[in-house]
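BUG-412 | component: ligand-complex export | severity: low

The export step for zinc ion jobs runs without errors, but we want the raw record kept on the ticket for reference. Input record follows.
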Amino acid sequence: MTAEAAVACRSCGGLDLHPFLDLGVTPLADALVAADNLDAPEERYPLQVAFCPDCALVQILEEVPPHKLFVDNYRYFSSYSDAVLEHSRRHATSLIDTRRLGPDSLVVELASNDGYLLRNFVVAGVPVLGIDPAPDQAAAANAAGVPTIDAFFGSDVAETLRHDGRVADVIIANNVLAHVPALNDFVAGMAMLLADDGLITIESPYVRELIDRVEFDTIYHEHYCYYSCTSMERLLRRHQLHLNDVEFFPDLHGGTLRWHVGHHDDPSDRVVEYLQRERDAGVDRFAYYQAFAIRVEDVADRLRTLIGDLVASGATVAGYGAAAKGATLLNYVGLGTDLVSFVVDRNPHKQGRHMPGTHQPIEDPAVLGERRPDYLLLLAWNFAAEIAAQQRDYLAGGGLMILPVPEPRIMP
Ligand SMILES: [Zn+2]
């Protein structure tokens, strides 16, 4: 692997990235295949994960052009998850309350998708601005009364807004920092756009959950970076921003952190505690990541055996959730249509297409009633509780669910 030395850390620019997991050469996880395109070759890219010993940031080595990921192939609409909607509503309510937001405030959300979060501020009479590069999602937001610019955020967008006299009292960046290839330009833009006493909240899956719970399927080309408090703090400091509080949501996207960030240095006890716990666990050292690849291989082997045995005994298995992590899992574990015959998803923009690489057709969850697969592999395991609640009839009729990580098991 001679190419590695040429790859610089996305955060600190360090050239000493240490790879620790190779997921092979895989299709883009969100590049769902149209039915009339199944015979055409799919674009594939290497998927390797590395650790930067200089700033502790975990990141993938390859860089697929963002336009390919977030414009051409992007069909994720946040509004299709009840859990995400509820989490967002609470976040907005709490911000309006604690930051005393009103008609003179401005809330800016980066990667605002279809406006599902900002809508809560609009209803409360708080001015908002969404920024999202996906044209369909931005159009849906504008149609729903959430003013949204269709663009990739960075220092140039921030400068234009600032020039127009727009300064943000609150900037929300949920599940976007993992998706940003030009990390420093993005964070510089946030610093530029934030009012002197403003607050940035950033949410991203926690790298400790990824490692400790073997959530290897959350690694795909869209996710350039995987954050700890340590790596986040070092990134922010480079832009004179400060990490002042941290919250943990264990059930959101497999374990999510919310960081509170501002221009002033005022860390809570929780920040100090998290940084200390990460040092104790070795999150800032390569050894913490080294055994991960072996554990991933073990989970993949056991899942392949479990499903192979079920199918060999005459059972049928379908997948739930045509999300990017589902594509990583099916491709890495090697679950083709012979083992997992189809996949269901609530998002109508995905139905009628096929999973990348493995080509399972994506159907409306309503088909579960007629087709009654014996087992449902939870590709979207982060929504396990929500799916179980929606699929009460399937479960009552004797259907069973398979949870793939942290270890494959059949749920009653
Ligand atoms: Zn680095």
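Assignee comment: Attached the raw record above. The longest helix spans residues 292-312.
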